[in-house]
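Data deposition worksheet. Section B asks for the primary sequence of the deposited chain exactly as it was used as input, without tags or linkers unless they were present during the calculation. Section C holds the resulting structure in token form. Section D is free text for depositor observations; keep each observation to a single sentence. Incomplete worksheets are returned to the depositor.
Section A, Depositor: J.P.
Section B:
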Amino acid sequence: MKEGSENSPFRLEKEFLLGGSEIHAMRYGRGSNHLHVIDRSWEATIFDPNRNQVIRQYKVPVEAATCADWTEYGHHLAVGTWRGVDIFDAWTAERVTRLAQRIRTTSCVAWSPTNGYLAVATGSIRLWETASETFTISLDGHRCGVRALAWNGDATLLASADEHGQVFVWEIASATVILKFQTTYSMIHSLAWSPDSRFLAIPASLQNSNKREEAKITVFDFQKGEVVAEIVGPRQPPRALAFNPSGQIFGQILVSKAENLRFWRCDTWACVAVVPEDVAQYIIAPVTFQPFNHFLYTLGQCGKSVRKWSLDAKALLALEVPYEADPIADQIFDLSMFTPEQRIAAHGDPLGMARLLENVTSAKTPDEKGKALEALCKALFLTVNGFKVEGNIKTSTEEIDLTIQKWTQEIEWLTHHPFYILAECKNWSGKCGKNEYVIFKEKIANRRGSCNLGFLISWNGFADTVELESLRGSHGDVVIALLDGEDLNEACKEANFIDILFRAYDRAVTR
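Section C:
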């Protein structure tokens, strides 16, 4: 059954490439409706997945960083380093405070969902209180480095796991351990509480009848005070665990090439779905749910992209047999997130344009031709550093193929033009005529002064009437540059689209 088919409990909505390095951590801000992401080059991104738009992106000014976490509502970012912890305003990137420590490297940090604590783990765990801006509680017991921290929903309990596979659950009010659990798995990177704080899920391993290690997940029930499930199935221990907001199902990313996203019922602990993904084994692969919604965010193929899944929990629970999704054959990156460097890193293809160019030449129907050319042009505009592109925008009176936002002042010939640039794409069997030129010029003029530059793109070139019309209207402020199929072919082969844009612009203003 394919993702997105009528009876599928999953649908892969989008795949966003947000940075040039592997993603280290991500969290959905409960109150901000934004996804917060930080990669291994410590570039932070605030992303609106509902609008498919990067809100803020910046390099975190730290050295030798090791870990990171955001507050529940995404206002502050804590970054652990070799020297302590730096706390930043997550929106302005300004350092709010530095928690200097004369102890070992910070291995893990975790903000509490309530009560204003930041848990900082090294050899021990210390709680920093935001109100007093001091370390007020010390939790001692681990004999080696702590690799995972997880607060329960009301921040009364904190679970921790160390490099020797020992898991502690701490009661914050008394600063004492209320549960010790020893696993044989020494690389625990994630612990997960159910929303009602009843269940704690712990990655572990056990020996099968052939005395070979098998991965499992141990579930401890704090209501019963005992282990209620030892889930066996994945071939490798999970690198990430997360309960969905309703607590009915929790999904785990398994770092395995063949199978790595599984869902289990929380009543019978039976597996209800398996979704093959292609995340490399060495990637930690965080997962996060969108609060109050049925969206799950996981990592894409190379650990550099985020996949947004819509999840039908009721459909999953109603299944009589486990749902097995087909492998994801292709990445479906939203091209509006691309930069040239990211495309090279993700694809190993100088511009990743070959398939888009082939789609334009092989399209049969008018609808296919139009969409193929728009996709190619969108990708080409996104090779220009500082350009953000939105496609197929419809207003009450008109439709705009591409809207380009100019987030740069480094392109000298564009500096005196407003923030917005429009592009119109025509993939007709014949040439584009003057009527289309006039209509496009009116669209630019209707932007209330926020746009005076447009690129009219016709795969099969332009009629002579377009040149005459452009000369007749050259006295105004609006500039329309013309591009044809030969220009686009050259841009794909030579990776020089910005040069071709300038060539077309120069023709438009000097003719």
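Section D:
The longest strand covers residues 199-207.
The two ends are 57 Å apart (CA to CA).
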